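Hey Z.,

So I finally got round to the D-malate thing we talked about over coffee. Here's the setup:
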Amino acid sequence: MKHIYNEGSSDRTLLLLHGTGGTEQDLLQIAEMIDSSANVLSVRGNVSENGMARFFRRLEEGVFDEEDLIKQTKDLNDFLTKASGDYQFDRDNIVAIGYSNGANIAGSLLFHHEQALKGAILHHPMVPRRGITLPDLTGMNVFIGAGHNDPLCTEAESKELYEILEGNGAHVTLHWENQGHQLTLPEVDAAKLWYKEKF
Ligand code: MLT
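And the result:
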């Protein structure tokens, strides 16, 4: 996968996953704000939707191609394992930071692959899949940044994701803003405070 790796001075690695149409550059500043000592692995989505990079295909806005989601999630999980060997970072100490489509594939890692991540900051995520059994998420810390007026990731869906993750053992913080689907500075500040408390 096309990516950037910047070595830090701590044992933690931040995995950055951009939104639709983004690149591996998008969340670098946010990673710096959240934890400037961590390694950074920022990945570009492998799927192109009319030239816009994404992490998996969708059938229409908000409707995921589940088969592709499952495949791309596995590929990303395998890539993390390979990258940890190539760059010599701790595979068991990865915290994902994802926005929108990137938050959705990070959520999908939690739904499908036990211990893929140590924790996750999900900015405006959706429920990646329904009706499946999740791995045991005991001890997993997750921050959800949601919008009361987010038309894509609705209030109800944000709460549903919170319930599913909590129901499988994760500790989830659900933070609300009022700026639609946008990722705003107050939301990043809230994620930063959460991260400092949890890690
Ligand atoms: C998705 O397809 O992952 C969501 O609709 C969010 C987005 O537009 O990327």
